[in-house]
Write a structure and sequence with these properties.
3 helices; mainly alpha; about 95% helix; about 80 residues
Length: about 80
Amino acid sequence: MPEFLIAVIGANLFILFSPLILLYVAFWGSADEQEFMRWSFWIAFPFTVFFWYVGLRLFTSFWRGFSYGVRTARG
């Protein structure tokens, strides 16, 4: 079970930070790496945007529910 969680967290971190990796390779990578990134950008970027949207949406919904619970618990 811990191996699965580590793999899921690692994959999500890679997806969320892939724009930084793409930019790094696009500017400072070798010619072959830059060509590969030109093609893979169109696959990786939409997934990255989707994961950022889902992550921010989950965080804001959690925060709203948490703050509502704190407000109602105080009376």
